[in-house]
């Protein structure tokens, strides 16, 4: 087997811990899992298998292609983007159902014979969803709705909009005949019981993201690791990397790692990120390039072929790089070997 010189070390126990933490915070509400974007970049099939074994029963993807990739897992999958005309050939996938978002989608589903579905209602985000007025006018009559859902726009902030959206959503409790109601994402779980309804749909917090301080118990799941391609001595006064943004103040031992912005280790880590050799931290020197970074390994015994881990706890990595926690996860590239431990 030809191993890649970069890999993601993925912590199964941390993933399951995070789901159980969110489930416990959600009280009587069921706790689902958003696994869109290939499990936020970590591999949806492996995420689903671990969370299903832990007790998760509701999973959410964006597209029908993502649902098809999970059909043989046997789990219940809701497709958040609904049904376009081009999706109808897949819309009867076993254990999958659409989240209808527009009057056109609702009519398309009815014309095709209906069947169990979910519905998204817009409560103020102005992204996807039918309107409360559509519902009052009878748009959803005749539908068999499992879950009526909406999405919070500012749950990661203490914003007045949170309560406004919650109140608009709660007002629909008897309006649709839906079996369940669902509003809260990861940050919404932390807003408290009034936001939990029957089902919560966490995403980023499952994978190590911390969108609110109340979720500080979330554990890191993904750690990028890269192999040393070369160790070299950079003499005092010599530069490293593009545009010579780092110049050695003294003779420095430098390790060149097989990792760069093409792998999702973004340019924002230039001169700010750190690798680790055991507990020894090795600063990133100069600019991150497409496929390579340089780190100061003067304080560690590092040789060609060794593996080094990158500091990638999501809240701290986001603050350092200027990228969101979501981007840091979903941008992790296809060149990584994904290794679950």
Provide structural commentary.
With 341 residues, the chain is of the alpha/beta class. It is 23% helix and 25% strand. Strands 3-4-5-6-7-8-9 form a 7-stranded parallel β-sheet. Strands 11-14-17-16-15-18 form a 6-stranded antiparallel beta barrel. Strand 15 (274-277) and strand 16 form a beta hairpin. Helix 1 (12-25) packs across helix 3 (44-54). The radius of gyration is 23 Å and the shape is elongated.
Q: How would you concisely characterize the structure shown here?
A:
The chain contains 10 helices and 19 strands.
How are the SSEs placed, and which strands pair?
Blueprint: E1 6-10, H1 12-25, E2 30-31, E3 33-34, H2 36-40, H3 44-54, E4 58-61, H4 64-68, E5 76-79, E6 96-100, H5 103-111, E7 116-120, H6 132-136, E8 144-149, H7 160-170, E9 180-182, H8 186-189, E10 199-200, E11 222-234, E12 239-240, E13 246-247, E14 252-258, E15 274-277, E16 280-285, E17 292-296, E18 307-310, H9 314-321, H10 325-330, E19 337-340
Parallel strand pairs: 1-19, 2-10, 3-4, 4-5, 5-6, 6-7, 7-8, 8-9
Antiparallel strand pairs: 1-11, 11-14, 11-18, 12-13, 14-17, 15-16, 15-18, 16-17
Helix pairs in contact: 1-3
